[in-house]
Specification:
Elements: H1 3-10, H2 14-21, H3 27-35, E1 42-43, E2 48-49, H4 52-62, H5 67-78, H6 86-92, H7 94-106, H8 108-116, H9 133-140, H10 161-172
Antiparallel strand pairs: 1-2
Helix pairs in contact: 2-3, 5-7, 5-8, 9-10
Length: 173
């Protein structure tokens, strides 16, 4: 039996209650998940976050649209070789924490993408370039954003069909 399970049975659900108050739907499962590898953000003995930084991450997850979905996605991503640095980065990088947790709380598609491409979370570390999006999308399909198609003129995409859809999805992310 795990320490979390022992504390749950001994403490009358104190851990589960505390995490349920932080908006987790299943406080007992959240406690077990937060206390275990790969996150280690919850100390079951003390019934509190393992550090101030871990507490900040847990609170941010609790404020998301779907804390349980965020937690599940983070565990899956952090449990991969490409995701091992994610828990520490979420503790120290406020911009990453705000971006990733908010997105995972509302986008099951992003969670699915990161589960299959776990290293892509690093994209959210840097500066975002919203003005560069049109050029990046056009480049992905072999077009030129400075010479858009208008009527019969302009630079048409060289990548089309299913390949274009995949290229655009990748570039958009």
């Amino acid at each position: 039996m795990t320490v979390v399970a022992d504390r749950m049975s001994e403490g009358g659900g104190r851990i589960a209650s505390r995490l349920t108050r932080l908006s987790f739907g299943d406080g007992a499962r959240a406690a077990a998940t937060l206390a275990a590898a790969p996150l280690h953000w919850w100390d079951a003995e003390r019934n509190e976050p393992t550090s101030t930084d871990a507490g900040v991450v847990i609170a941010a997850i609790g404020r998301s649209a779907d804390p349980d979905a965020v937690l599940g996605a983070l565990v899956d991503i952090a449990g991969t070789p490409e995701g091992t640095a994610l828990p520490a980065a979420l503790e120290t990088e406020a911009r990453l924490r705000a971006r990733l947790i908010a997105l995972l709380g509302v986008s099951t598609e992003l969670a699915a993408h990161l589960r299959t491409h776990p290293g892509d979370w690093r994209i959210l570390l840097g500066e975002l370039d919203p003005d560069g999006v049109p050029a990046r999308l056009a480049d992905a399909v072999g077009a030129d954003a400075r010479d858009p198609v208008t009527g019969t003129a302009g630079s048409r995409a060289r990548v089309v069909g299913t390949d274009a859809v995949l290229a655009l999805r990748t570039a958009y992310r």
